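PT: before anyone asks, these are the final sequences, not the draft ones from last week. 1197 residues across everything. Please model them as a single complex and drop the result in this thread when it's through.
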Amino acid sequence: MTEDSTAAATATTAIETEEQDTTTTPLAAAPSELRIEHEQRQQKQREEIHALNKETLHHLLYQMVLIRRFEEKAAEAYTLGKIGGFCHLYIGQEAVAVGSISALRPDDYVITSYRDHGHAIAKGIPADEVMAELYGRAGGCSAGKGGSMHLFDRDVNYLGGHGIVGGQIPLGTGVAFASKYQGTDRATLCYFGEAAVNQGAFHESLNMAQLWKLPCVYICENNQYGMGTSLQRAMSLQNVSEKACAYDVASEFVDGMDVLAVRAATERAVARARQESLPTLLEIRTYRFMGHSMSDPGNYRTRSEIEKFQERDPIKLFRENLKTQNMLTDEENASIEARVKDEVERSAQFADSSPEPAPEELFAHVYANPIVNSEQ
Amino acid sequence: MAVITIREALNQAMREEMRRDENVFLMGEEVAAYQGAYKVSKGLLEEFGEKRVIDSPITELGFAGLGVGAAMVGLRPVIEFMTFNFSILATDQIINSAAKMLYMSGGQYKVPIVFRGPGGSAYQVSSQHSQALESWFAHFPGVKVVMPATAADAKGLLKSAIRDDDPVIFIEQERMYGSKGEVPDEADFTIPLGVADVKREGTDATIVARSLMVPIALKAAEELEQQGISCEVVDPRTIRPLDIETIINSVKKTNRVVIAEESHPFCGVGAEISAQIMERAFDYLDAPVKRLSGVDAPMPYARNLEKLALPDVARMVAAVREVSYLD
Amino acid sequence: MATQVVMPKLSPTMEEGQLSRWLKNEGESVSVGEPLAEIDTDKATMEAQALTTGVLRKILVPAGQTVPLGQVIAIIGEPDEDIADLISKAESGAAGAENKKSIEENVESGQYGAQQELAKIVADGARTQATIQGAPLTSDVGAEPEAGAAGQPPAPPPTSAVASAVPAAQPSGNGQRGDGRLIVSPIAARMAAEAGINLQTLAGSGPGGRIVKRDIETAISNQAQAQQQTAQQPLAEAPAPPPAAQAQAAQPIAQPAPPQQPEIEGASAYRDEPLTTMRSTIARRLTSSIGPVPHFFLTTEIEMDRTAELRRSLNELDKETKISFNDIIVKVAAVALIQHPQVNASFQEKAVRYYERADIGVAVAIEDGLITPIIRGADQKAVGRISREVRELAERARNRKLQPNEYTGATFSISNLGMLGIDEFTAVINPPEAAILAIGAVQPKPVVREGEVMVRQMMRVTMSCDHRVIDGATGAQFLQTFKKILENPLLLMI
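LR: through. Structure below.
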C-alpha cells in the first residue's frame, strides 16, 4: 500500500497547485490573473509541441477540427429535425477526447457517458457511422438503435456512451478487471462528467479499482456544469482530483484546453495502468461552449463567462501555437480544413442515404441466445 | 442418482462450470474466505484461488456494474448477492446496463452474466430481508429470470445460466437451500432455460407454482387427492422466458387454475400468467383464474403474522376447491 | 465551410417564427453558441444561437418578417468563401421547402426528445420555464397526484386467512342473475354449444348460479339417457344449428357485404349485415327470456276462394298436373318473401343474414318423423314445376332417398297440417331460418262481406317468427302480402 500512496502523491502536478485558487471559484479571478495564467499555459504547450513529430501534431489538430465541424453539422441537422431526442454536443471539449485517446493503443478500451460523439470519432469510429447513428439509420455504428447517447463499436474497442450519469464508471472498472484477469496490458479510459462524481458509482468504483489494482484511467471531464447546475452549487469539495486520495488512487489535475497536456497526463496514467496495473483519476478541466443539449436555453450562465472560455478555445490555441512554432503552414491548415469539410459533408450524405432500420430490427438483439419458448 | 441439497447442487454447478471455462469467476460478499454467507460457495476458493473467487466490499452497485463491464469483454461473471434484497442497490446496472447493452449497441456487446443469490421469504427477518423481487426483473426484456425449486433444477438450470450469453437473474429460495432431491449423475447435466416442468400430473385443476410454492403445491395436491381432486402442478422454472405453452396446455386439460407465488400480487408474475391464460385459453376456463400470492403488505417480523403473509398448504387447498366450485 | 442558418424549431408546437431582431450584422464574426438573432415563437422570445463559427455572410430574412420553420434566414461562412450557390438556392425557396419538409418528417421524434428534456429543465426554475415553454408544459410536469389517489386505503389483500371462508353463493334455479343475464363459465358455454345443450334449461351449480363445466357434463349424460329412452322428437325439438352455420357465424362480416356463396350445394346466396346494437340487444334479451330462438306468433285468416278457383282452372288445363293448395302457398310465400327480405333471413352470431332467393322448406311427414325437402328459388318457379318438385321430393323423402343438400339450407319453411283436418296450429322454427308458416285446413266458413253474411273458403295460417330477426310489424307486413296474393292470385301475374 505504501508504494501506491507514493504514486498518488507524485502524480500531482504543478498545474494542480496553481489551479487551487481558481478551481473553487473559477469565475471570480480577475481577468489579469487569468491572462498571466493563460500565457504560462500557452508557453508550456509551445514547448511541448517539439516533443512530437509533425504528423502526430497534424493528426491531433485534424481530429479536433473534425469533431468541432461534425458537431456543428449535427447541430444544424438537429434544427432540421433530422436528429431526434437528446443531442449533447462536445464543442469546446475536443482537446480532452483527442488528447487522451491519442495516448492509447488500438486495443485499449474507451467507455464514456452520453456526451460521446467526440470520443467515438477520436477512437476511430468513422464519422459516417456516427452521423448515421445520430440520424437513427441502419448504417449507424449501433445500427440505429442507440442514437446519440449510445454509440458503440466493437471493432475499435469503443464500449459505448451510457445514459445514466455515472453508470459507465463501474462498467469501465469491470472492463479493466477483465483485462487484468485475461493477463493483458490493455488500458481502459473511463470518462464521466464532474456531476457523476457525486454518484455512488464513482466512489464504489474507485474503491474497487485501487483495492484490486485495476488498470483503469478514470477521466473526469470537468466542464463545470451538471446540466444547468454549476459545480459550486453541487459539490462540497470541488477539487475532483483531490477525491482520489480517499481511495489511495493516483490523480492529476489537467488543463482540458491544452490537447498536449491532456495527452501527456493520459500517457502517464496509461503507463501506470499497463506497467503497474493501477488506476488513475484525471480531472481534466474543460468547458462546453454549447448548451447541455440542443434544447438547453443556457440561461444559467452568462454570455461573458462563455466568451471568456472561448478565448481559450482548444483548437484556436493549438493552431496558433503550431503556427508560431513553424509546425503548421497556412496551406497545411487549409488542407486540414478541406479534408474535414469533405469528411463531415460525406457523413451527412451517408446518414441521409442510409436506410432506416428494418421493422424486424425492433425485436433483434433483445437476447443473444435464442429463446426456447418465446412469449413474444 | 445422488440425493443432495439444493445448496450442494448449486455448489456443484458452479464448480463444474468454473472447471469447464476459465472465464467464469465468482464475485460477491463473503463468497471466498467466509465460504459463502449461505455456504453455497463452500470450497470454491480452495479449488480456484483468489483470482476467480473474489470477496467484494459491500458495494452492490459497484460490483454488479463491474461484472457487467467484464462480461462485455469476454468474461462470464457469476455475481452473488448475499441476498436479492441487496440487488435493489444494483438495479441500475442490471436494468440499464445489462439488460439493454446488446440491444442499444446494435447487437455488438452481449453480456453473459449471472446474478444469483437467495431471494424470497426468509424466516423472521422482517420487511427488508424477506421479499420476492422476480417481477421487477422479469418486467424487462433483455434479462432472463430463473427460479429453481428442486436440487436437480438448481444444478441443471444454473449450469445453463452460466453458459447463456444473456444476463440471467437466478433467484434461489433462502428457505430451501437445505431441501434435498435427486440429481442425475451424468457428467454434463443441464436443463434448458425457458422450459417448464410438470411436477405432478392431474386432471381437475392446475396449480402454477414456482420456487418455494412448488413443495407447498405438491403437498396441497396430495391432500386434494384424498378429497378426490386431481391436481396438476406446473413449475415454470424460468419466469422469463416463460414457457406459457405448457401452462396453457395444462389449463386446457383441467379448465381451472390457481397461481401460487410468494411475491406481492400487484403487477406480479402471477398477474402476468393470469393475463396470458385469459388471452390464450379463455374458452377453456371453468372458473376465474385464482391467484394465491403473498399479501399486499411488507413482511412482518412476528412469527404468526409472517405465517399469515404467505400462501400455505391449507390456503392452497382452499383455493383449488374454490376454483373447482366445491365450497 | 458555409452553413445555412435556418428558422429553428424552438418549441414543440412552433410552425413559424418572426425574426424580431438581428443581433449580428452582415460581415461580423460569430462564434458557436453566440446569439445571432431574436426569434418570436408562438410561446416566447428566444435567441437563435450560431451553431458554427465564422462570419455572418448574408442575412436573408430582415427583422420583422415571419417565416416558416426551416427557411434559410442567413448564411455563415469563411470571409472569402463562395456562397452564391447557397444564396440562390435559399432565395429560390428550394432549401426552405426542403428543410421544412425534413422538419415535418422528423419532427415527431425530435419534438418528443425536446419535450422530455424540457420537462427536466422546468425543475430548474420558473424563468427557464417561461422563457422556453410557456405555461402548458408545467401542467404535465410534476403534477399533483389526483386527489385522493394517494390517500386511498389499499385494497384488501386478495388472499387472507379468511378469504376461503367466503360462502359460495347458492345455486339459484338456472344460471341467471337478477338482471336476467345468463352466467356461464367459458368452457361450459363452449361445451354446451358443441353438445347442442340449451343453457336455459340448466341449473348452474357455481357461485351466483354460474353454469360450470360439471353442469354441462351432467346435462350431456342426461341427454344421452333421454335419447336412449325416447323415440324421435317431434318438430318442436329444434336441433342445434348445423356446424356449417356455426362456422359461418364466426366469420368476420364485411359491410355492406356482396352476396356470399353458401356452403351447402345449391343453397341460396346471401349477404350478411352486421348486427346493430339494437338488434343484438333484442336478440340477447329475448333469448334469455324464451330460449335460444325467441319465437312469437302471428295468425291471420285468408279467404281462399279465388285461389281455389285458380287451382281448379289450372288443374283443368293440364290433367297431368295435380296442383295442390300447398303448391300455390309455396309459390305465394316465396313471392312474398322476396318482397319482404327481412323475413327471408336468419340470425347469425354477429349479423343478420339476408338471402337472395326464397328457398322454401316443405315439411313432409314420414314414417317415424318428418323432413323438410327444399324448393330452391321457389319465387322463380312456376306453380306447376313447384308441384312436380314437391311431389318428387316427398316421394324420395318417404323412401329416404334425399341428399343432405336437398333438405338443408332452406330460408323459410312451410308446415301444412290442413289435409289432416287441423284448423290452426303453431310450428316450431327450424334454425337458422327465421320463420315458419303453419297452414291450417281450407274450409267453408260464414264471413261478413259488405254487411252480409256469406260462406267463404277460409284458411288460417300462423307464422312463427324468430324475434331476433323479425319484429311483429315486419312479420305482419309479410303476412299481409301473403294474404293479399292468395286472395288475389292474379297478382302472381304482375
